[in-house]
Amino acid sequence: MSSSLNPSPDFRILANVTSPTFDEIDFEYATPVAEKAMRIMAQHRIPQTPNNFQLWFKYSLGTSSALTRTLDILISNKQKFDTATNHDLFTTYIGSQGAEAAVVHQVSQQLHGVMDSTRQYLTAAIADNRTHMRAIGDVAERSESGVDPKFLIENLVGELARATARAAELEANFAEKSRELATIRDSLHKSEERAKTDTLTGLPNRLALEEFFREVQMQAMEKDEPLSVLLIDIDHFKKFNDNFGHVVGDQVLRLVAKAVRDRVREKDLPARYGGEELIAVLPRTDLATCEVIAERIRQSIADGKFARRSTGEILPQITVSIGVGQFQFGESMADLIDRCDRALYLAKKAGRNRVVSERELELKLAAG
Fold first, then answer.
1. pLDDT, tens only, 47-71
2. By residue range, what is the domain housing residue 242?
3. Whether residue 220 sits in one domain with residue 341
4. Is pTM, for the whole model, over 0.90?
5. Alpha helices of the chain — where are they, by DSSP H?
6. What radius of gyration, in Å, describes the C-alpha atoms of the chain?
7. Which of the residues 100, 142, 296, 330 has an alpha carbon 20 to 30 A from that of 180?
8. How far is CA 357 from each of CA 24, 145, 146, 292, rounded to the nearest angstrom?
């Protein structure tokens, strides 16, 4: 890492820039913002609950470009702000900010400590430099007064040696603070990764899923591109756990997760959705292509040989059922996953170990 005295721009943002809170906004400014939020909520028939008001107040403030972008797109597409949508929006843009704020505060405190030390070193360096210049000036004055040159040279050499030692110490101190900054950056990165990773499977968790889906959802609507999701459930997993124990069950879940991760593309996001359910979000992918990928995953798991790690015992065949759906313009993640879940239920009902798409749901509804 560079030994520059300036921290990276990312750290300056974390340390110094925060969105205003209710307490930080004065009454005269807050009143019209609150009135605007209430008007928008009434216009879109959004219940005026505390959570909803907090979300739309923040939107009316305009302090979050991501929130503004999301709501503007939903409004332009005449999205219905039902209970599920309102809950998802609050959880994504308001509810998760407490943990983020704690991380930001911790990093801010560490950075302030580094910068305080740096300021102290600079102050000491400036003082040393002044002392050094005064000493050299004194030698120059004495040389003009006819003092023995040998004595003057010894004094000058000594002062230069002391200056060199002070400069070396200062450089070492700055290098140490640079290492501290690198440690802070690494710690922050690892903390963010842990917060978005499921500890059992190593896959991204619900937090990472929601963040990723929100981004690709916006891209799909802005660029008119397809977006599909496949929802995976391990067949008879409860029975398997009862027969072989949760340790072996966890091992199977990790192996299934690896099979999913290995068979989706780099641009896709496989994640653990909950329990024995896994999910994959596939940007720029239509329903037919998503079905092909889902079938590839299903087949690889059904053909796989699973062995108990401790004994090498071959376990019974593991199979999965998969529900597939394609994003509809303006809908929430909850609505899309609900369709995938209903397709998954149809796959279970039809005998398991199969892929069912939302197209089959529509055919079933049409058939009555």
1. 988 888 889 988 988 877 778 888 8
2. 206-367
3. yes
4. no
5. 9-16, 27-43, 50-61, 65-76, 83-90, 97-144, 149-195, 206-223, 237-244, 246-263, 287-303, 333-349, 358-367
6. 31
7. 100
8. 50, 99, 100, 11
